[in-house]
Each structure stands twice: as C-alpha cells, then as structure tokens.
Design goal:
Strand content: under 5%
Radius of gyration: 19 Å
Low-confidence stretches: 3-12
Mean pLDDT: 75
Number of helices: 6
Length: about 130
C-alpha cells in the first residue's frame, strides 16, 4: 500500500473512531418532527424501511401474533410505498408546526393506518 492509501486508511479509522464515540454518548430517543426535519430524504426512507423491517420480523417471529403496531406496519402499510409514507409524515409536520414533538411513529400510525384514529381538531366532535 502506498503512502496515500495509508493516510486514507488512517483518516478513515480516526473518523470512524470519533463518530463511534459521539454515537456512544447520544441517548436513545424516539424520532419526532424536530429530528425528522433535519434528515435527508434517504434518511427518512431508511427510518421507514427500518421500522417496517422490525415489524415484519416481529410478526414472523410471533407467527402473526405480533403487537398491534407490528401488525399495522406489516399489513396496512404494505399497500403504500415508502415515498408515500415519507410524504404523509412531511405533510403532517408542515401542516402542524406546533406538533413537532409528536413522534414519527405516532404520525405514521395516525396518518397512514386505521390502527390509531387521526387526532381530532380542536372543537371537533367524536
């Protein structure tokens, strides 16, 4: 390996070491509108794919008797594309800037499935 290659490998190792250290100090959290709005389209799609894959796994592992959330993702969201789901989440946060603290999972369940009914508007009737 030439000198340029060694420098590149060393820089990459340093970057990965620093990035891993930063990730290790960040606490787990639910994504909400604040985090969602800072992420690229690819990041948003990855998030939706990730929760969908987790739901599929849980459903398969429990032989179709998975939790309500898993069944909703595995069944109801199969009729939508990831891009459609991302668009609906983006629209919710754009139309409701006062609800940026609402978790992405709640938005997906309320806006894209029938599992959780949409939130009633103020003054609305049930």
């Amino acid at each position: 390996m030439n000198l340029g290659g060694k420098v590149l490998v060393a820089a990459l190792a340093l970057f990965l070491g620093l990035t891993t250290a930063a990730w290790a100090t960040e606490k787990a959290f639910l994504w909400d509108g604040s985090r969602w709005s800072q992420v690229s389209a690819d990041g948003k799609a990855g998030y939706i794919f990730g929760i969908g894959n987790l739901a599929d796994f849980e459903n398969a592992a429990s032989r179709g008797q998975g939790a309500c959330v898993s069944r909703a993702f595995a069944a109801e969201l199969k009729s939508k594309t990831v891009a459609q789901i991302v668009t609906e989440v983006d629209k919710f946060y754009k139309d409701n800037p006062d609800k940026m603290q609402t978790s992405v999972i709640e938005v997906v369940l309320r806006q894209c499935t029938s599992v959780c009914p949409p939130e009633m508007k103020a003054g609305g009737k049930k």
